[in-house]
Design goal:
The chain contains 7 helices and 2 strands; from the N terminus they run αββαααααα. By secondary structure, it is an all-alpha fold. It folds into 2 domains: 4-44; 57-198, no CATH class. The chain has a two-stranded antiparallel ribbon with strand order 1-2. A hairpin with a 2-residue loop joins β1 and β2 (64-66).
Length: 204
């Protein structure tokens, strides 16, 4: 029968082995976490600061001078569409704050790309503002012409009671009648940056 010293020695060996195994498992978990964290970081959507735009000469779109970009992560093709929105607002006597509401809405609807398709919810939606083919937004050509689509948007916007003082995302939601009233809120800072660069200071 083993003596007390043998039992103590056996317990110590078992304990030591268990610690070694636990340490090895911890190292494996840490390494896996580091690897996954690195992968997730590299797969994340690019930030505005990381966007690089193709070299391009500035363009004059109506009253707006459009650089190559980026501005708030948007390049010239997208900024040209923002310029059309600004020009439409200016033609209606609408100032920079509400110009930014229009740009924000188009960012949230189409990323400032004049898309010729809709989605599962609105398969007939078209253009910068994803306007539906329901008679409220004009013809297909109207909805696919940025200046005209923006004019339709602002014409409806200024009929909203209290539009001058509404929160931007709620005002856009009221015009667009989308599902989430807060959908556009995250685009507001970028819209302000774009409008301030292309049009002028945006008051609070």
């Amino acid at each position: 029968m083993p003596g007390a010293s043998s039992r103590i020695l056996g317990f110590g060996v078992a304990l030591g082995g268990g610690l070694v195994i636990a340490l090895a498992i911890a190292i494996v978990i840490a390494a896996r976490s580091a690897l996954l964290g690195s992968f997730e970081s590299s797969a994340a959507a690019p930030t505005a600061a990381s966007v690089s735009c193709p070299a391009a000469a500035p363009k004059q779109i109506g009253t707006v001078h459009v650089p190559a970009g980026p501005i708030a992560g948007y390049c010239q093709d997208q900024l040209i569409n923002a310029a059309h929105i600004i020009n439409a607002a200016r033609a209606l006597g609408i100032g920079t704050h509400t110009q930014a509401v229009g740009v924000m809405t188009a960012m949230g609807e189409s990323s400032l790309v004049n898309v010729d398709h809709g989605d599962a919810v609105g398969p007939d939606s078209r253009g910068l503002f994803q306007q539906r083919d329901n008679g409220a937004w004009g013809s297909y050509t109207d909805r696919m012409t940025p200046f005209t689509a923006a004019t339709s948007f602002f014409t409806k916007l200024v009929k909203v009671p209290g539009w001058q003082t509404m929160q931007p995302t709620l005002l856009a939601h009221t015009v667009q009648v989308n599902a989430d009233p807060q959908h556009y809120a995250s685009y507001w800072p970028a819209a302000v940056a774009v409008v301030e660069e292309l049009s002028g200071p945006v008051p609070n």
